[in-house]
Amino acid sequence: MKEAGFTRGDYICMENQKLIRKLLIYMKGSNSEYDVYNHTEYSSLKQRLINEGYNFYPNYGNKVWYQGILSEIHRDDLELSYYDYSGNTEYITDHYDAVLMPCANIFSEEFVDKLIKNTEFIRKVKIPVFVISCGIQLGQTESVDNLIRKIGKESSEFIDAVYQNGGDICLRGYITKDFFDKLGFDFAFVGGCPSIYQRGRNLKIDKKNVSASEFKVAVNGHNTELKTKLYRDIFRQYPESEFFDQDEYGEYLYTPDFLSDNSIKKIIQHVRKNGNMGCNLLFQGKINYFADVDDWIGYIAENNFSMAFGSRIHGNIVPILSGVPGVVNSCDSRTREIAQFYDIPCYTTKEIEEFKDLYDLYEKIDYSTFNKTYISKFEEFEKFLRKCKLVDEINEKNIFGISTKVNKTIVNENDIYKMRNKYMRMKPLYWFIDKSLNIYHGIK
């Protein structure tokens, strides 16, 4: 670890260099999870994922970050390439000006092997590496000090390698800043997440004057949360609300023939997995899983949602990009620190219980601080990119846009309809099974 007092000036500095022209992105850019340049063909999405080596549907929330940074650094004279993982670092040094390395949750026990591997790569290339919007991942009861005891050495070596090569690091929030400070890197820049800057410096959120009967929520989260009373009540009280999934309902919507077996036994299996609420929303056409960010933003913008709510940070940032206020149901350090950095309303489940209902919470949330501080955060992030020689100024016109003709193709629409008819005939049975399972597993 570095000794306290070590300053940014002790490392290589890029202040007097020219703008970067050839940038290598340390990832495969052609795979579905990060392909922002081509619209998804949902009828062949499953086969594409298989061809790319996926045995699951990816979290397309990752695309929101990636689309943001690409749009913000866009220049006609900037040439982007993607790493082929060949390990040919000499070629990279000779042919590129810098490397952009996506590392969202790199500082965690889960990714320590990747942390070590990335450090080895950075030490071998002789060009700057930029790590933008990285952070630590803590469990609900884990502390920064505890994480340092586990991965402090590997983290310090990674950070030091970035700075030694003349690169730089943007932290997503102040929980991660505390981690860096305690490792001795107290000069690290905190800039949030580039996903939120892609609509330019004038982003502003205004709450609608909406009655409880008109209240409509864009709910996001994990499937397990749909089984809890908090989330079940949202759909019971505000029936026009919809759920925005990021990685759990892909098979149901887009894998051909996944729901062709609509026997009672199979329906019971789906109820056990997704809960009664998950099945109800699926059969009502209220489960959304967008692989393209412009469609995701466009769908929320054109469907009169009053508010977004849930535990997925990009599940709330996407509505914010469409002008809809988001409220984060804090579940980990990552969501909490990004929400706190931007002054996005953020509550634990216990804190939410202090409100009468979600509409009561909506009436009391305040986006004035977000609106007041957003532009200064945008400008600080722009200064950071300018210092890194990635831009003269942030490109404020999103090169990917917002879809006005949203593609909401559901491959399994007919099978969902057939299963719905069978499900409705014995709905009380499935409700009883779900309730029994919740009692057994202690879900409230």
Please render the helix and strand layout as text:
Layout: E1 22-25, H1 45-51, H2 61-72, E2 79-82, H3 89-95, E3 98-100, H4 112-124, E4 129-134, H5 144-164, E5 168-171, H6 174-183, E6 189-190, E7 217-220, H7 229-237, E8 242-244, H8 250-254, H9 264-283, E9 287-288, H10 293-302, E10 307-310, H11 313-321, E11 326-329, H12 333-342, E12 346-347, H13 349-352, H14 358-364, H15 368-387, H16 413-425, H17 427-441
Parallel strand pairs: 1-2, 1-3, 3-4, 4-5, 5-6, 7-8, 7-10, 8-9, 10-11, 11-12
Helix pairs in contact: 2-11, 4-5, 5-6, 9-16, 9-17
Broad structural category: alpha/beta
Strand order of the largest sheet: 2-1-3-4-5-6
Low-confidence stretches: none
The CATH C-level class name of the largest domain: Alpha Beta
Rg for CA atoms: 23 Å
Give the SSE string: EHHEHEHEHEHEEHEHHEHEHEHEHHHHH
The pLDDT mean sits at: 93
Count, helices = 17
The count of strands amounts to 12
List keywords for this structure.
17 helices; 444 residues; Rossmann fold; 2 domains; 6-stranded parallel β-sheet; alpha/beta; 12 strands
Overview of the structural elements:
By secondary structure, this protein is an alpha/beta fold. It folds into two domains: 208 residues, Rossmann fold (3-Layer(aba) Sandwich); 193 residues, Rossmann fold, CATH 3.40.50. 43% of the residues lie in helices and 9% in strands. The chain has 17 helices and twelve strands. Strand 11, helix 12 and strand 12 form a beta-alpha-beta unit. Helix 9 packs across helix 16 and helix 9 crosses helix 17. The longest helix is centred in the middle third of the chain and has 21 residues. The chain is globular, with a radius of gyration of 23 Å. 42% of the residues are buried. The mean pLDDT is 93.
